[in-house]
Amino acid sequence: MPSPNKHSSPSPAAVRDARIAAGLTQTEAAQTVQASLRGWQQWEAGDRSMAPGLFELFMLKTRQWPLEGGHRAG
After folding, report:
1. Which domains are delineated in the chain?
2. pTM of the full predicted structure?
3. Contacts of 20 (CB under 8 A, 6+ apart)
4. How high is the pLDDT of residue 74?
């Protein structure tokens, strides 16, 4: 999976993979960044782009930081 640079939105697969690596449900992941379940589902489906800073926050809060070479999951 190609990794976007640190200033671009993560891919839907990166969002999903990060959630799974954290062992969270979509509901739990959404709560981690104070988003709605529907919003999280849209990020994973590619219907909406997740802001890079929000993805970084999720990665920090789930102890998957630092990212090496841009966004990645786990």
Report:
1. 12-61 (1.10.260.40)
2. 0.80
3. 73
4. 43
